[in-house]
Amino acid sequence: MPRPEEVLFPTRKERVGDRRKERQHRKVVDEFFDHPTLLAIGKLVNRGEFREVDFPISTGKEGGVFRATAADGYRAVKIYRIHNAIFRHLPPYVVEWVRQEVGATANAARMVFAWTRREHTILSRLVAADVRVPRPTACLRNVLVMEFIGEDGLPAPPLVEAVVEDPQALYADLVVQLRRMVASAGLVHADLSPYNVLVLRGSPVLIDVAQAIPVDHPQARELLERDAATFARYFRKLGVDTSPEAFFAASGGDHWAPEEAA
Length: 262
Ligand SMILES: Nc1ncnc2c1ncn2[C@@H]1O[C@H](COP(=O)(O)OP(=O)(O)O)[C@@H](O)[C@H]1O
Ligand SMILES: [Mg+2]
What we know:
Helix content: 40-55%
CATH superfamily of the largest domain: Phosphorylase Kinase, domain 1
Order of helices and strands: HHHEEEHHEEEEHEEEEHHH
Bound molecules: adenosine-5'-diphosphate, magnesium ion
Strand content: 15-25%
Strand order of the largest sheet: 1-2-3-5-4
Largest sheet: 5 strands, antiparallel
């Protein structure tokens, strides 16, 4: 197994003098790369999934996303923290699914592994349905490896931070992606927000899909309505003429029969 200091943020050695950054990186290493996670990273490196983890793109309570370098370009590596707390913020349908998957008495680690696998499976399903998402390339324990969404080594910004030159075009494209998600993949994203849509060369890329829900689930319709309401408000602020109802209908809401919609 490669030594962690060889694989994690190797460029920090070159940043002599940038103590603040170095301290930050060390903190991230301590927080995310515990021994079992390092073992998983080592295995992925040995399998050739990537060579090194370059730097954190995002670190949150539930996990972190890192840029990594592979032989043929970059990858995004998402690491879930092994912690029960991640399920505290998730809706009941998701916790129910995890418990069914690994058993009600499973420990936090097994639950988190199931969760990581779920994100991998859903991403694959979305790729097959031609929805624009990062293509997943590997999944081991609490580590998910996927296509890096970015340009020139820089991660694409989430919609909240992006400068949108043509909101109408982005809106229309997003509607197409969501429609495919419902009609071809049979899924509703269920946590759609301007944080979970990256903007790459003016086009939306959907991320953070682990909590997606099958369209035949009793709550699916309501969740698409909620996703639609969030986005309709957001796009109206950008000057797009839409409404929660219009966005819902356009992004797959017509999957549900009108009588169900009453
Ligand atoms: N495939 C990717 N390529 C580039 N950046 C990514 C990728 N996946 C996630 N990110 C970045 O990491 C952030 C957090 O990822 P996300 O999957 O939303 O995890 P979280 O559960 O922490 O919200 C995103 O907002 C985005 O900036
Ligand atoms: Mg997110």
